[in-house]
């Protein structure tokens, strides 16, 4: 099973600040790494698929990068509405797995 | 517009059964793999199962293998999850989703396993 670890677990950020969340896979997963945003009592929403492809309608301040085992989600110029938990997810091999999540709070 | 509307959650006793449904609209259901993902209260997302477009192939997380069965009725554009021998640790919000990566999600349905 591919284990995904995320860092940090929690981040408190000022609006307009840049946020970087990392996701590390226990083995190479190529480009099958995706990022989701989940707000309390809501379903997750896809932000980035296959490392760096923005999903339709996602603001351009969200971007992704990386390859192999190390991946990054970047939020440029954080807005108040970005307060949420962010999950990485791999679809390279079964069972598909998710990272533990990174909670982003607004100061 | 893509919609996934879930139904069928609720309270069930340990050892009991429940069937979840996920009605799809706004896309050609017969061409997509479908998935179930769950989230225990206050916890992260966990992949549960997937089924291919014609229903001939399915995969499961080890934690549910042999107890849960995923299926679909392409004539009704509906995905199902039959959950048997339920345990307290199966308590979670269950989400259906289209494809992996999951571009569209259902609204979630809470399953509570408790006596």
Model description:
The complex is a heterodimer of chains A (107) and B (115). Chain A has 107 residues and is mostly beta strands. Chain A is built from no helices and 11 strands. In chain A, the strands form 2 sheets. In chain A, strands 2, 4, 5, 6, 9, 10 and 11 form a 7-stranded mixed sheet that branches. In chain A, strand 9 and strand 10 (97-98) form a beta hairpin. Chain B contains no helices and 11 strands. In chain B, a hairpin with a 6-residue loop joins strand 5 (45-51) and strand 6 (58-60). The radius of gyration of chain B is 13 Å and the shape is globular. Chain A binds chain B through residues 34, 36, 38, 43-46, 49-50, 55, 87, 89, 91, 94-101, and chain B through 35, 37, 44-47, 50, 59, 61-62, 95, 100-103, 105-108.
N to C succession of SSEs of chain A: EEEEEEEEEEE
User: Topology as H/E string of chain B?
Assistant: EEEEEEEEEEE
Low-pLDDT runs of 5+ residues of chain A are none
What is the subunit organization of this protein? heterodimer
Largest sheet properties of chain B: 7 strands, mixed
Number of helices of chain B: 0
First-residue to last-residue Cα separation of chain A? 36 Å
| Chain pair sharing the greatest interface | A-B, 21 and 19 residues
The helical percent of chain A reads under 10%
The mean pLDDT of chain A is: 97
Beta-strand content estimate of chain B: over 45%
Determine the mean pLDDT of chain B.
97
Could you tell me the number of beta strands of chain A? 11
Task: Considering the chains and any ligands shown, give keywords for the structure.
heterodimer; A: 107 residues; mainly beta; seven-stranded mixed β-sheet; globular; B: 115 residues; 50% strand
Summarize the structure.
The complex is a heterodimer of chains A (107) and B (115). By secondary structure, chain A is mainly beta.
């Amino acid at each position: 099973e591919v284990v995904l670890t995320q860092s940090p677990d929690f981040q408190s950020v000022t609006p307009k600040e840049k946020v970087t969340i990392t996701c590390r896979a226990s083995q190479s997963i190529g480009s099958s790494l995706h990022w989701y945003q989940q707000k309390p009592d809501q379903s997750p929403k896809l932000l980035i698929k296959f490392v760096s492809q923005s999903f339709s309608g996602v603001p351009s301040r969200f971007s992704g990068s990386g390859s192999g085992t190390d991946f990054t989600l970047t939020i440029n110029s954080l807005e108040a509405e970005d307060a949420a938990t962010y999950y990485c997810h791999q679809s390279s091999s079964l069972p598909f797995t998710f990272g533990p999540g990174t909670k982003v709070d607004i100061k | 517009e893509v919609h996934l509307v879930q139904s069928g959650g609720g309270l069930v006793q340990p050892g009991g059964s429940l069937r979840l449904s996920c009605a799809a609209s706004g896309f050609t259901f017969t061409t997509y793999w479908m998935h179930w993902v769950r989230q225990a209260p206050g916890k992260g997302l966990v992949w549960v199962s997937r089924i291919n477009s014609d229903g001939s192939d399915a995969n499961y997380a080890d934690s549910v293998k042999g107890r849960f069965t995923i299926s679909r009725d392409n004539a009704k554009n509906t995905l199902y999850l039959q959950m048997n021998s339920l345990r307290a640790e199966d308590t979670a919000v269950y989400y259906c989703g289209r494809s992996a990566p999951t571009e569209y999600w259902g609204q979630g349905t809470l399953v509570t396993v408790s006596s």
